[in-house]
Amino acid sequence: MTATLDTPPAAVVNRSAPKITEPVVPLRHWWRWAFSAVAVFLLAQLVWTFFSNPQWRWPVFAEYFFNDAVLRGLWLTLWLTAVSAVIGFVLGGVLALARLSGSALLNSFAWGFIWFFRSVPLVVQLVIWFNLGYLFPTLGIGWPFSYDFWVVEFDTVRLLSSTVAAILGLSLHQAAYSAEIIRGGLLSVDQGQIEAAKALGIPRSRRFFRIVLPQAARAILPNAFNEVIGLLKGTSVVFIVALPELFYTVQVIYNRNQQVVPLLLVAAVWYTIFTTVLSIAQYYIERRFSRGTARELPPTPLQKLRRRLGTAAARLRGPADAPPPATTGGISTHTVAALHTSAH
């Protein structure tokens, strides 16, 4: 029995035939252009209000932007952010390892710590630490389950100043969130790699620092930087303990001169500047840890800008220097006509 195929024979490519040039038409994204136009309009409207509305009072903003009191408050904000972030992530790493350990006692303690400090609001924690002297007038080391501190004893009010209370509140609050971020990053590493390293006899410390941690960092870094940026802005909460950081300093100034909006703009711009710096650092650190996951890393914004400027310069030089248009690769006229006919 012979089967008959109804499909036409394949077209024969005649390489000696003249080439047919067909321009490549890019795909047009009309909705993308429409939404981009709306976004540009809203941005232009916002910028126009900045320069047309005199209630912004830009001269007052310029007067207080580099004010000595504001700069001291900014320095305290950055210092609190750095110290609390370091303590919070170090303690969070210890808690994450405790959560992943096989000890039921360590696992339960770490879970309870995370549960408590994520449940209580940060403002409440700061107030409790600042007023701890009301509950415990003295703290020290002595007999357990008693207040007989015969080894060493401290006055709680003097020990827990506003700065110490702020660091304790911010650090412990941050540690609870950092622990879950680090634990999630460690769990994202393929278990098969750890088992293979065990089979090869690689020591536990080397397995952790050379195999697990570099891969987990790709999952940890975005959330970690997100928490640091949130911590930078969260330091504004320490005004509750009368600590003169940036937001508290701005409040004191506008309560005296009644220039509320310009002073709030001063704080907002300083927060925006350092948030932008952290975002740029996050981009390049993530890009460094992404090596090995792709054959070629995506271009940086500067590389994209140079490429676009080069393309624009090539277009301005004229068609003589432009690359040749795309061709059909030497397919004959009859073949192209047959392809169009079969397509229809």
What does this structure look like?
The structure is a single chain. By secondary structure, this protein is mainly alpha-helical. The chain is about 70% helix and about 0% strand. It is built from 14 helices and two strands, in the order ααααααββαααααααα. It has helices at about 30-50, 60-65, 70-100, 105-120, 120-130, 130-135, 155-160, 160-185, 190-200, 205-235, 245-255, 260-290, 300-315, 335-344, and strands spanning about 140, 150-155. Strands 1-2 form a two-stranded antiparallel ribbon. The two termini are about 35 Å apart. Residues about 325-340 have low confidence and may be disordered.
Question: Keyphrases for this structure?
Answer:
single chain, 344 residues, mainly alpha, two-stranded antiparallel ribbon, 14 helices, 2 strands, 68% helix, flat, Amino acid ABC transporter permease, amino-acid transport, membrane, transport, transmembrane
